[in-house]
Amino acid sequence: MLTALYIMIGLALGLGALLGYAALKFKVEGDPLIARIDAILPQT
Fold first, then answer.
1. Predicted model pTM
2. 38: number of CA atoms within 13 Å, CB side?
């Protein structure tokens, strides 16, 4: 029972670190399409 808990904690930490790395590696600075749409549409 305790071994399963350690395995799940290890998997959670490993996958969390992988997701954090992927978020930094594939970060998008900005989308020019969104800026163009914001300029066209009225802002309230």
1. 0.61
2. 6
pLDDT of residue 44: 66
Distance, CA of 6 to CA of 12 (rounded, Å): 10
Domain regions of the chain by residue span: 2-40
For residues 3 and 35, give the distance between their C-alpha atoms in angstroms, rounded to a whole number: 51
CA-based Rg of the chain, rounded to a whole angstrom? 20
SS3 per residue for the chain: CHHHHHHHHHHHHHHHHHHHHHHHHCCCCCCHHHHHHHHHCCCC
